Predict the 3D structure of the following.
Amino acid sequence: MTGEKKKKKRLNRSILLAKKIIIKDGGTGIGEPSVYHAVVVIFLEFFAWGLLTTPMLTVLHQTFPQHTFLMNGLIHGVKGLLSFLSAPLIGALSDVWGRKSFLLLTVFFTCAPIPLMKISPWWYFAVISMSGVFAVTFSVIFAYVADITQEHERSTAYGLVSATFAASLVTSPAIGAYLSEAYGDTLVVILATAIALLDICFILVAVPESLPEKMRPASWGAPISWEQADPFASLRKVGQDSTVLLICITVFLSYLPEAGQYSSFFLYLRQVIGFTSETVAAFIAVVGILSILAQTVVLGILMRSIGNKNTILLGLGFQILQLAWYGFGSQPWMMWAAGAVAAMSSITFPAISAIVSRNADPDQQGVVQGMITGIRGLCNGLGPALYGFVFYLFHVELSEMDPAENPEKGAKPNMANPTDESAIIPGPPFLFGACSVLLSLLVALFIPEHNGLNLRPSSYKKHNNGAQSHLHSSQGGPCEGKEPLLEDSSV
């Protein structure tokens, strides 16, 4: 009897411990935490937004017929700046309260504008701007992956997440364009809303908490590191090493036009160049596939044959050619040719991440990569606003509701107040971007091929909470370099 009582007592303790873990974790999931949980969350979120590529272009012009490009730039500029400011804080909070709750929060608020597209376009664009506060799903996902993988497995896991992101954007715009043409925009919005809800339900029901219990504070009221939550903390360290400074200037000057391009290029193709909805979707798919090939097959060959620095310079050269072609091109075939060049330019940032990884000490990887990630986040806010302003400055506006539906008119630039200069240069912001990347290439010439980055270890405080270091490495790690060229700017 005594033995049976002891067994029952042990069983009761085990049950009680399991209940405590469930309560502290905020819910259970299906199976152990895995990269596949993260992959499904990312795929569903970006697939839902990719479906809306075609309807969003129409609603954008209907809502802001006078200054479409300017308002588009301001909307995405506000969203990008808010994301830059909030990402470190949300990351620090997820280190305290766990990843699952913040995955739920970021996906919910990022997808909240979707049904408003048909209910109230004004509220739709207002909520998109404000949703930038929570539009940091990737940061939380990378932290989730870092929690459950060993260091040597992390690059492969990040690559899988980035490839899934690319796959969702390669397929969904084409599907959305077909459904919009066949059944109307309303069905596309309903389908995107349903997929977003499915993503939220998947997180609630299937995604287990990844942050180990021992790495979380004993109480929910435990303080977070406000230094970790400061979005400008990494930027203040930029000048501590000359090589880091050169790399950061190169990233800023090259990514600023790229971020602006993401926000306006599909609208530009459809309304100014004369692409149809189906052609825009096909363009996204083709360039997306080519960019994935460039970042995998071509990048590996170039890194082995011409070296790291020369690969960066070659990528910047392709980017200059691409943006100049976008700026001067007025025919659809020119856009397709420039798109192929754009795919090759996507090798730049992976090569920059690689040169940082090779030169930085292991205990400085997080801080250096974090600086680069912070600069890219800042560009995500400044780039769209800058492009919208340059379009407005050169009077590049839309004069018809949907010129893309009348392809027989030819691919004439569609401008409200055309001048001789704007007729010669259909896309002034792209030409401005080419000049910015040219400056970036000149700076990159001075980056040493092999040079240890000499940042003071004391400048990067490692906190007792081990999950903090996971987040640093995940937010700014090499995975950022695996982002596809065609990032969905609406998310």
Notes: The mean pLDDT is 75.
